[in-house]
Specification:
By secondary structure, the chain is mostly helical. The chain has three domains: 187 residues, no CATH class; 34 residues; 87 residues, no CATH class. Helices cover 62% and strands 4% of the residues. It contains 14 helices and two strands. Strands 1-2 form a two-stranded antiparallel sheet. Helix 4 packs across helix 6, helix 5 packs antiparallel against helix 9 and helix 13 packs antiparallel against helix 14. Bound molecules: heme C. The site of heme C has 24 residues, from helix 13.
Amino acid sequence: MEIEWGYIAEWANLLLRWLHIIAGIAWIGASFYFIALDNSLEPPADGNPRVRGEQWSIHGGGFYYKRKYVGAPEALPAKLHWFKWEAYWTWISGFALFVLIYWGQAGTYLVDPRVLDMPAWLAILLSAAMILGGWVAYDRLCRSRFGEDEAKLLAAGAAMLVAVTLLATHLFSGRGAFILVGVMTGTIMVANVAMVIIPGQRKMVAAMEKGEAPDPRYGLWGKQRSVHNTYLTLPVLFLMISPHYPMLTQHRYNWLALLLIALAGALVRQFFVLRHSGRSNWALPAGGAVAVALLFVLVAPRPDARFAGVEAPPFAEVQALVAAHCASCHAARPSFEGIASPPKGVVLEAPADLRRHAAAMRVQIETEAMPPGNLTDMTDTQRAQIIAWIRAGARVQ
Ligand code: HEC
């Protein structure tokens, strides 16, 4: 048995993605839970001044009673549960997956010569600089005087997101740019846990062990970063699934699409945060719906002048085009370097394959998501011919 690198990479992809989703669900689940808990606390029944609030709940057939302290409790409990490995493993698995796909095959996934032609090493370097730079800039911002005023910080953070999105979408392939903004934001979220929240909590616990009162600033800083993470969660989740939607990632105004979706996600999250504390502001999800509706109109397919006025060629010609431009990857045994099995199981060889996948092919060809980075140099006329053939009913004889 001869095992190729492409086959191993496929397994690494599968296992990392699986782990990433499991860890991500655990992390985001815990984080949503604590925010909901925080926002639904009631004043303590026993009037204990050290207790900020308490909550009774029922779940999985059991009753739970939780209290949140102002600062710290009278004494440290023997066992204290920490929440950090969910976040760390989400990042470790996610970053490894990013490296495997977007750096391992930068020429296919990260670079798009129609956006900007650059060598793979430069794309890797630039994307690494953006991931690191994003955290450094955000962290500086929070620690600057902007950090003391939530409204100013929000404005500065939003400006940063706009700048980063414009930069990424003008440097990299559509899907590469979306994932990169997602990786950058996800890195900020995990770094908030690893560099601010957990170290602060460690210092609080250490002070208590020495019998001193912990500095309440650590609690406040931790809370600030944790709130930021809340608003970033839904946008990041969308960015992680965005490669499935070339209608957005490949669009001419993909940067605007990214920003509108991020806005919708943050508004919806804000709605839930308020709702947990008993207030419902329906203007928020309405705003999110408007953002999505704008996007719906923005990316709606319009007759594309580039692909108009072309007659459907005979099937044999279509088959030859697909063989030349798609089948190096989309074959039962792909010949393209680094592709071990037909991507997404899409084989485009026999006439029946072309007929079956016609609708999906049209989306991929029209949005120019395929061939990735136009690796096989398809011309607009060739795209137009295949599209015309599909429009005319994708007949195979
Ligand atoms: C260099 C290799 C390569 C070439 C050439 C290529 N593809 Fe793909 N194709 C891929 C990869 C990789 C994916 C999976 C993308 C992903 O992970 O989302 C894919 C996915 C697809 C999908 C499934 C999309 C989905 O998300 O379900 C379709 C349909 C498709 N390609 C059509 C085409 C067509 C049509 C052509 C020729 C015009 C083509 N591809 C050329 C690599 C290629």
